[in-house]
Amino acid sequence: MKPRIPQSEIYSTAIKLFAEKGYEKTTMNDIAEDLSVTKSNLYLYAENKKNLYENAIRFGLTRWHLAVNEKVKKTVGIEAKFRTLCFSAYNYLKEEGNLRKLLHRDQSIFPINSEDDRFSDINYTAMTILENLIIEGIQQKVFRKVDHNRAARYIYSVYIMFIIKTYVKDDTTTDDNLLDTAVELNLNGLLIR
Fold first, then answer.
1. What is the mean pLDDT of the chain?
2. Residues 73 and 85: beta-carbon distance below 8 Å
């Protein structure tokens, strides 16, 4: 038995099992067994299954945003940063199969209606990354002066639509070329000409 389990290991395991079996069929015992701990030991880290599920999703979404933000920080130039942000945020789920499966199983993680977004604080953080990039572009006189909050909310809503269509609804008509077009249209709306 492990003396202390890192939260990242607990949440990654929970995401994997919830993605494979679904929320209803996954038990705390399943997760404990996969972690090689007792069920009672697992309850030291989570109040109940619902708490573990919600925290695992929060962990997965936060890890997604951090990975994208790191890629943006390593990119030079506002236009390149904008493209990196858009493409890496969208493509992250191609690499993170368990999170992608979980989003497909639980379509309420990315609701269309923002009032139903139980992860709005995390999604707000993602939108803030975009908004800060728009502000940086305006300050560098690469982007025209726009209401950066409204522009970020609009572009983020387009992004959410792509995530929902591609990964939640498995819409096979959404492809990389459509994303390329959306990114270029949004970028051209920001650039000073």
1. 91
2. no
